[in-house]
Amino acid sequence: MSALLESLTVPHNGLSAETRLQAICNAGLPGRSEEAWRTTSLRAYERRSFGIAEMPTVAPSRVADIPSPRVVFANGHYVPELSDLQGSENLLSIAVGPSKIAYQTSFTADRFLEEIAESQNSAGVSITVLAGAHARINWVNLSIATSADVAWHSQHHVHVMEGATLMLIEHHVGDADATHFANLVCTLRLDAHARCEHLRIQNHDAKMLSFCSSFASLESNAHYRRLDLEFGAAVSRHVIDVDLRGEGAVCEAHGVAVASDKQHIDTRLNVSHIGKNARCDLRWRGIANDRARIITHGGIRIRHGADGSDAAFNSRNILLSNGATIESQPVLEIHADEVKAAHGSTVGQLDPLALFYLRTRGIPEQKARAILTRAFGNEVIDLIEDSELAKAANAALAVAMRDKTV
User: Fold this and answer.
1) What is the pTM of this model?
2) Hey, which residues does 300 pair with through a beta bridge?
3) Are 286 and 315 in contact, with CB atoms under 8 Å apart?
4) Which helix (H) or strand (E) holds 25?
5) How far apart are CA 53 and CA 55, in angstroms?
6) Spatial contact of 343 and 371, defined as CB atoms under 8 Å apart
7) Is 220 strand, coil or helix?
8) Which of these, 265, 91, 244, 276, lies nearest to 165 by C-alpha position?
9) For 84-183, where are the alpha helices, taking DSSP H only?
């Protein structure tokens, strides 16, 4: 067994070596033969090992610019002294502690990280927005550098009850020297006529190994709109599974990935149309520089009986250097009649005519390239209707562009 897998499956939180953990160890790390892991191999890290994450010391200044209400975690641990939910008492309920997620019933090799999180009784937060309420919350996940590399597994739940609205801003912020392994699982449930606006900013340190699994389930006429900004980590792999269960459910999932140096950013979208007259709109933008690699998998499945479905996946990408790599994988699987489905995918360079135009206006080439690249990323950010979310997303994109000098 590899040192990596051995360190990730050390039982803690009072659990002994469970049968499920043993099954994971017996299966070993997934390789390229596993379709879901074909584009992100862990073999390069199999000799690394990570200790169990303890509660780190966190300076209040780390969250000073993140407004309340907020829930703060550091290295997988809840930090009550930095969390602040004042003003939300009548809108939502919140519980923190070990939790279980019943999203699957048997072990599968491609879901081994979710399985580890569940088997180890991982802690997390459960947020329930009360029926008819309108709430907002900042959810902060910090990675703090420690004397040794550590790993943590966490499970979180978000439930938006019937007719309620939630604005959720998810921050993943890295320390300058953090080289940890983060494994986060989040489930989101939207009852009938519920709505959720979800912004996720992943800006871990460039040495982090970041793995995230998001599962969303939508009932009738629920509306889920999310924007993912993927900027940080040495390796980032994010699986987003959305089930449109109810009639008239809507999912709009957009994202921007910006990578430089040797970064590896892999996003896997899987949307299932189950109820009738559901709609999904997936738009992704990738910008890769140096020797970075960006992968976007856009899978849409329209199940039998999901008539009236309207589904679209659009992925556009820019290569800023000859050493960078971008893969875009649209997959449509249709088992129903009377549906509308489309996909499009492109990989290219900056428009030379637009670049020439800016140069003729006296703008230096590097600045002209930065303007065009920023405008390219803003194509999906401009889709945000809420001004607060748009402002936060624009600020995060500007910082990422500056730091990566793209």
Assistant:
1) 0.92
2) 271, 332
3) yes
4) helix 19-27
5) 7
6) no
7) coil
8) 91
9) 112-119
